[in-house]
Amino acid sequence: MRWIPRFVPALLVLSLPLSAAAQGNSEEAAVRRALEHYLQGHATGDGSHHRLAFYPQANLYFVQNGALSTLTSEEYAARSRGKPATDEAQRKRRIASIDITGTAAMAKIELDYPTVRFVDYMSLLKVNGEWRIIAKIFHRESKAGG
Asked: Which of 11, 27, 54, 101 is deepest in the core (most CB within 10 A)?
């Protein structure tokens, strides 16, 4: 019976990483929900998905004609056409990576379309228990024939 008191603390120590991992998985799932709204906005052409993905104060930054350009998240959502693109069946999108530290996260998203490829880098924050995109930067690369 002397081994029980020594055994119990070892079990407690071993269970700590599991609970931290479970919490990490739950945070990753919450970050993914925000990113999935972003992807659904592209797939459906429905700007309401983009409004759920981004904080209203969010901005998008990109290079256009060699100069820095910006859009607000509302300007971006308003560009949605309300229906899927005609080549939607050929478009591929994926969340390539997610990195979370506390209430901040970074994600890389790849959008592979027939004539263009985008790589998006998303900065997300968790405010009042909700993860949303606060900033997006991206690179656009035309494909041959596009």
From this structure: 54
Backbone angles phi, psi at 79, to 5 degrees: -75, -10
- 3-state secondary structure labels for all residues of 52-85: HHEEEEEEEEEEECCEEEEEEHHHHHHCCCCCCC
At the top level of CATH, which class does the domain 3-142 belong to? Answer: alpha beta
Using DSSP's 3-state secondary structure scheme, residue 93 falls into: strand
- Read off the pLDDT of residues 87-124 as tens digits, 9 standing for 90 and up: 999 999 999 999 999 999 999 999 999 999 999 999 99
* pTM (global) more than 0.90: no
Burial letters 118-142, b for 16+ CB under 10 A, else e: bebbbebbbeeeebbbbbbeeeeee
DSSP state of 115: S
